[in-house]
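Input record, target 12 of the design panel.
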């Protein structure tokens, strides 16, 4: 099952927004979009649950983040560059790439 990760870069003038500025926040967004708990997400992506938990909840980043981001992107369909680099490809903008 692939997730249609098509978050757009629209910001409301009032109200709340989604924080996707860190790898751990983006990881949580992917997991929630897929409807998984941490154990399910880790299993689906071929990773240990304790490792996923440390990335998402403790804010740690994988040592081989490119490999991990590619693996998660492949399994979930989320945008690889967004997962790896963040909003607008890590340039500090507020756009999130969409998967075409």
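The sequence produced for target 12 reads:
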């Amino acid at each position: 099952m692939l997730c249609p990760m098509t978050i757009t870069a629209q910001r409301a003038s009032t109200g709340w927004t989604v924080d996707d500025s860190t790898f751990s926040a983006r990881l949580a967004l992917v997991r929630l979009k897929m409807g998984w708990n941490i154990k399910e997400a880790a299993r689906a992506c071929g990773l240990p649950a304790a490792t996923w938990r440390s990335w998402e909840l403790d804010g740690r980043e994988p040592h081989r983040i490119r490999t991990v981001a590619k693996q998660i992107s492949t399994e979930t369909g989320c945008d690889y560059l967004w997962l790896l680099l963040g909003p607008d490809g890590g340039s500090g903008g507020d756009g999130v790439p969409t998967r075409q």
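Confidence is low (pLDDT under 50) at residues 1-8, 92-100.
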